[in-house]
Amino acid sequence: MAFITFYFQIHQPRRLNEVDPIGLGRDYHEDLEKIYFNDGLNSLVFNRAADKCYFPATEILLNSVERLKNTSRPFKIAFGLSGTFLDQCAMFRPDLLDLFRRLADTECVEFLGETYYHSLASFFESKTEFKEQVTMHSEKIEEIFSFKPITFRNTELLYNNAIAREAADMGFGAVLTEGLPHVLKWRSPDYAYKAKGSDIKVLMRNYGVSDEIGYRFSHKVITTDDFAGWLAGIHGETCNIFMDYETFGEHQWQETGIMEFLKFLPDAILKHENLLFATPGEVAATCPAKDEIDVYEYSTISWADLERDSSAWLGNDAQKAAFGAVKNMESLVKKTGDEQFLKIWRNLQTSDHLYFMCNKWLGDGDVHGYFSHYSSIWKAIGNYFAVLCDFQKAIAHRLDDM
């Protein structure tokens, strides 16, 4: 028997206004959130994704889960819902949260732990902020869905030995990451592994299988029976299929047949007696560690871009400088004791702001441009630094008044 493990990532950043650097900072008693964040655009993007993906895809999955729940091989899935996505659900479409609650009520869905703000706080030298965000996120998941996360998914599957140790120290039993050949060497991603330096299980994404849906679906004819046949031929204990949820209806348009594919896929898989569904937590609890995964702290991996490392966010000097500026604000922001300032700072940590600043070319550059609301990376860089500079002045102004 082999486990088929589906995990879907859902994240929406809180996008920035394109600010006027000259007009900034005239009155630091104004509502800085309204000055910095473009919630009109955020609402527009969120509602578009909700209509094209979140509602129709979730209704399809809910139907499959409920229909198969009481069978010998129930359909099970996992979700990673960022805190900023959950915040925007509450702001723009609270009825979407009700739909996810119905999924949670089936007890066939696992909700993963992560940083609340989809941040790079795992790279801070001090792990205080990282732990605070992960704790915030777990508490929010438990508050909304009555489910305590047991599996950790770092932002964009960023992973190294130190991140695994931190996740283990926080009580997680498993961590997800990309199944890269140079990490696996002769081994297959279709087994559970152990992290070097801790006892936490590591589940590796089978990107060859996952990307057939995520990236190649509209470029070749893939039937549910074909896909299920590929899964039936795996030789490992688990095939981990991880992808962006917006694959369904947003990145792959409904006209491609992607929604019908999602609808009929569970039954196609169940035609094969050697396959059954499981959540990541169940796989980690059931499958023994095949071997040890060793990813040195300065060789971090992820699922982003061709390099599958941290270069999507920290690949150029502007990104590194911006990341350093945000990181170095921690002690001063927390010293103000101002909850609004803390919320702003954490929203500025969201990795998308750095992602929009990436200057890669060809395919990777096209992907970065597709997700960005800026007309160029130079706009993204200039705007982010303008906001950071103004926020630094606002912090200093607040501390002077204390």
Give your account of this protein's structure.
The longest helix is centred in the N-terminal third of the chain and has 30 residues, at 39-68. This protein is 49% helix and 12% strand. A hairpin with a 5-residue loop joins strand 6 and strand 7 (201-205). The strands form three sheets. Strands 1, 2, 3, 8 and 11 form a five-stranded parallel beta sheet that branches. It has helices at 32-36, 39-68, 83-92, 94-105, 128-145, 161-169, 181-184, 207-214, 224-232, 258-270, 280-286, 311-314, 317-328, 330-336, 339-349, 352-355, 362-371, 377-400; strands at 2-10, 77-81, 109-111, 151-152, 174-178, 192-195, 201-205, 238-244, 248-249, 252-253, 275-277, 292-293. Helix 2 (39-68) packs parallel to helix 10, helix 3 (83-92) packs across helix 4 (94-105) and helix 9 crosses helix 10. The protein is globular and about 70 Å long. It is built from 18 helices and twelve strands. By secondary structure, the chain is of the alpha/beta class. The termini are far apart. The model has no long low-confidence stretch (mean pLDDT 95).
The structure class reads: alpha/beta
What is the end-to-end distance? 64 Å
Question: What string, H for helix and E for strand, traces the elements in order?
Answer: EHHEHHEHEHEHEEHHEEEHEHEHHHHHHH
Q: Describe the biggest sheet?
A: 5 strands, parallel
